[in-house]
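Methods, example record. To illustrate the input and output format used throughout this study, we show the complete record for SDR family oxidoreductase. The sequence lines were provided to the predictor; the line carrying structure tokens was produced by it.
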Amino acid sequence: MRKRCLIIGASGAIGLATTVKLVEDGWAVACHYRSNEQVIYRLRDQVPSEQWLGAYQGDLSHPEGIQAFLDGMDEEWDALVFCGGQAWTGLFQDMSVADMDQLYYLHVQSTWRITQQALPAMISNKKGHIVVVSSVFGEEGASTEVVYSSVKGAQLSFVKGLAKEVAPSGIRVNAVTPGWIQSEMNAHLSDEEAQMLAEEIPVGRAGQPAEVSGAIRFLMSEEASYITGQTIKVNGGWT
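The corresponding predicted structure is encoded as:
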């Protein structure tokens, strides 16, 4: 029987690259998306039918959307990968409570609750993988992205705490912290801004989604069987 993985945010650049790599490794996949339905349809056509477990639409940025997603979600998975998210850029004092709530629900509470629903089956089966894609800003903080930094930092604390709690049940929990990655989240950067960023990064360029998904693939492999509660930095030596 194939191992089953639920990928949150599968329509984004990192989620898409991760899905492709896990399918190559023999995983059966289910893909969550919020609005990029066409991306999911194209992805479905690339995945062998015996490895396609379906698509789950859901807006995880508010409580009702999280609950609706949970109501339709299967409860037995061998792995969860959290790739979804969005940023908010601007001065902290200009941020509305609604914007703060949206980032909190999307990055923190949905991660908690989806994991909570999937854990009983993993514990019963004495195996499981959970990988959370956080951010370099969750480790270092970022001016004009204060709340985004906060929720990404919360994800890392979640990984550390949960890893200790579920390790006796054979479940490994880890994180990946990308730096500047070539993706739609960073498409707003001007050429000048991109050049300035490249000059700050020792390898001198943006990372590619496949470089992040490679770290995720490793963490879910047998080669990483003694790794839990850890964070792999995929940032070109930025920090």
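Annotations derived from this record:
The first strand starts at residue 4 and ends at 8.
The chain has one domain: 4-234.
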